[in-house]
Amino acid sequence: MVPTNYYVILSAILFGLGVFAFIFKRNVITIFMSIELMLNAVNLAFVAFSQALGKLDGQVFVLFVIVVAAAEAAVGLGVIILIARNRQTLNVERVDLLKL
Amino acid sequence: MPEQPMLHYLWIVPLLPLLGSAVNGLFGAKWPNKYVTATAITSTGLSFLCALEAVREFVLERHSEFFHKEFFTWITAGNFRAGFDLQMDQLTVVMLLVVTGVGWLIHIYATGYMAHEGGYYRFFSYLNLFMFFMLILVLAANYVVLFVGWEGVGLSSYLLIGFYFLRKSASDAGKKAFIVNRIGDFGFMLGMFLLFRAFGTLDFQTLFAKAGTWQPDAMGQFGTLTVACLLLFMGATGKSAQLPLYVWLPDAMEGPTPVSALIHAATMVTAGVYVVARSHVLFTHSETALIVVGTVGCATAFFAATIGLVQTDIKKVLAYSTVSQLGYMFLACGVGAFTAGIFHLMTHAFFKALLFLAAGSVIHAMGGEQEMPKMGGLGKKIRWTYYTMLTATLAIAGIPPLAGFFSKDSILFEAFRREGGWHSLYAFGLLTALLTSFYMFRLIFLTFSGRARYDEKKVHVHESPWSMLGPLVVLAILSVIGGWLALPTFYGGSDYFANFLAPVFGGGPEAAGVATEAATHQLELILAGVAFGTALIGIAVAYWLYLKNPRKPDDLAKSMKPAYTTLLNKYYVDELYAFLVVRPLLWLSTNVFWKAIDVAGIDGTVNGIAHGAAAIGDGVRHSQSGNTRSYAVWVVAGAIVILAVIFFWPAASKTVLGLVR
Question: Who is most buried in B7, B152, B276, B651, counting CB within 10 A?
Fold first, then answer.
């Protein structure tokens, strides 16, 4: 039986990698993947705690997260395709209309 | 229906002019002049009739028993109550009839005088408003309601002085009148507060009943009553144009002439005398206050009369004459002869209103000319105006048996009879009488006699319409017979006036009873003779100087140049006030209140806060780069801070969580 904190530490490392990639990568697809990484890091923590506490709530939550992530992937990839078509680029630094 | 319907609905008397004012003010702009005229004349005329009916009920049905009615409560706070209470006693009767009667006549006159002026409806709206406030003032049964009228007449006076508001001098004069009156009103209010503190009420009846039981303040001591009286008198000096606050009245002649007649001669300016007479219970309890009143009155009478000697503007002469005559009234009050003061108030209302209206008629005839050196010889061309004005002049100069003789004589008599250092007041009063008859006849001779000093081809002199002459004639009759009301006993009269007012002012030394003593008779006869002689001397001097030797006045002016220029410049009082008060205040306002406190202090704070917010925003703005990942950095940084707090500072995080819950 692997102790719970192993899972939690692994989850934290994955999440940190996700954050790191989100912040420093420029390619929008890589960023998208780092988001998926963070979501799954959280999923791992949920499952681990669910097992440790002997409750099913965590696992139910994980199912929700997977569903939402799938939906997000559909929408997100659609947005990325539109950006690529309109701007001929996948570099997020060139997509900065969100300012005054 | 109550037994005396008009008395029980006394509020109708002031309400009618208010309605007239409101109707004319709201609708008059679109109406032809005749509707405006009808509204104004009807409202004041009805008010006069109602006042007559109220007086009839008061005198005949109540047998002059004091009437007082509370209509509604206006202010209550703790044990303080100010109600809309009106009262009627003999003093009110006199004031009420003078205000409504003379006021109505002047309204009629004004319809003729103002016929060709712009803003006709505005004029009558203001004039009716004035009537309303003046009636509130004289009918009030407590100091608070009286003060409402007091301020209201000040407002109407301001509006009417500045009636020709496009002329800068007129709007300046209006402001001057208002501001100078504020100074007096400040004292008046302080006086009211002091009275309330001392007696716990401002109702005349209760207050005077309580004050009557007090020990009189010792001479030279400043007890409550003395201070209160002096403060009230400060208000009176403002409203009634006494030294040192008289400066606004001569300037107030910028207003139309009917206004000068009604407000600045017959009614409003006598409000101060009325208040002193109304508060006579307080004043007689303070010898110091009486001396101040008498001295100020006497000094003003003499001072203003000397200025009146050399003025060339016909209305300015009358204005200084008014100031002087008001001084007489205060002199009467100061020697405790309130009856004489009120009597002079009444006769003065008749003849001074007449003088102003006649002067207005002259100005009308001359096409707007007010300078007497440019008149002359008008007597033959405008006979009605001439004879009525001559009547009024004889009355004010104190020629028997006209009204002014009796009232002025009774004041001088009381001043003479009063014991203890009052003879100097009598002397100055007599001297003033001499000056009065001189400058009034100077006015008559310069205006109506001699040769014409205007261009007869350009100025088409014409007699005024009957709407103007009618009131002149009525007032002339009143100026003749008005004095007979107080015919002292030895002239064969019964001094009806003094007997009538006796319930108000008490059976003091001025009451009719004492005058029957033989010694007093003789004294009064001698004094009357002296006064008559003085008046004749004044007339003779004026005749000699202005008709017999028309060059002499100029020579005199040259030989006494310093005195003449001082008088011509009104003793430089305006300049003195400008130097002592106006300019320091202006400097203080500009440099301290405006530039330092307002601009630097208040505006600086407000603008500083705004600028600070803008600067902070300017700095923080750069954090919004539009780059999504930089926002993510902020999110991460925030998360790290929160986690750090939870880990390293658990107590604080618990508090925050507690607040969130």
Answer: B276
Asked whether residue B170 falls in the same domain as residue B66, the answer is no
Q: Is the pLDDT of residue B83 over 90?
A: no
Nearest of B619, B616, B634, B625 to residue A99 by alpha carbon: B625
State the Cα–Cα distance between residues A42 and A44, nearest whole angstrom.
5
Contacts of A92 in chain B (CB under 8 A): 627-629
Shared-domain flag, residues B50 and B75? yes
Instruction: Identify whether the C-beta of residue B133 lies closer than 8 Å to the C-beta of residue B149.
Output: yes
| Whether B439 and B542 share a structural domain | yes
Quick check: ipTM above 0.85?
A: no
What's at B68, amino acid-wise? H
Residues in chain A closer than 8 A to B627 (CB atoms): 92-93, 96, 98
- How many domains, chain A? 1
CB-CB neighbours of B115 under 10 Å? 14
Predicted confidence band of residue A91 (pLDDT cuts 50, 70, 90): confident
- Domain boundary residue among B128, B161, B194? B161
Q: What is residue B628's predicted lDDT score, i.e. its pLDDT? A: 78
Report the CATH number that the domain containing residue A48 is assigned in CATH.
1.10.287.3510
Angle A50-A56-A58 from CA coordinates, rounded to 5°:
50
Containing domain of residue B644, as a range?
627-661
**Structural domain includes residue A97:** no
Q: Are B173 and B250 in contact (CB under 8 A)?
A: no
Which residues in chain A are contacts of B631 at CB distance < 8 A? 98
Please provide the DSSP assignment of B527-580 as one string.
HHHHHHHHHHHHHHHHHIIIII-TTHHHHHHHHTHHHHHHHHTGGGHHHHHIII
Q: Are residues B450 and B399 in the same domain?
A: yes
- Domain assignment present for residue A24? The answer is yes
Residue A18 pLDDT class (50, 70, 90 cuts): very high
Note whether residue A50 is domain-resident: yes
Q: How far is B613 from chain A (nearest CA, A)?
A: 18
Give residue B528's Cα distance to chain centre: 30
Structural domain tally of chain B? 3
d(CA A99, nearest CA chain B) in Å: 4
pLDDT digits (tens, 9 = 90+) for B519-560: 667 777 888 888 889 899 999 998 888 888 878 778 888 888
Specify if A96 maps to a domain: no
Which residues constitute the domain of residue A52? 4-91
Give the minimum alpha-carbon distance from A33 to chain B in angstroms, rounded to a whole number. Answer: 14
Instruction: Kindly state the tokens that stand for B334.
Output: 């100061």
Q: Are B103 and B267 in contact (CB under 8 A)?
A: yes
